[in-house]
Amino acid sequence: MPSMRRELIALFCAACLALPAQAQSVKVLVQSSPLAGFQYHAGKELWSEIKTGDALALVREPDNPHDANAVRVEWRGRKLGYLPRAENRAVAAEMDRGGRVEARIARLMKHRSPWQRVQVEVYVVL
Q: Is residue 106 part of a domain?
């Protein structure tokens, strides 16, 4: 029986060594905020299609005349709004450095105030 056990352990070790190494990425939540400007862009038109958990694209707009740190938020290529001006500096700086950032819809809520309708989470990927 000890011989059988050694063979099983050896087989297990060989199988583990044969597996390709899996690159692991870590996502760190760096911002959770309402979506600014939702009422001025495609939000109303897309409301019935967007879902909690959907991926969002973040696009830097360094030449934006209203905010040099502007970060546009898109869903499937359509502009939904922006990260709030008061909270976008760190994300803009990370993007300008070439860092990898991701975003998703954290919460959707039918609300009179457009600032309460969409909650966005932004992650830095390490």
A: yes
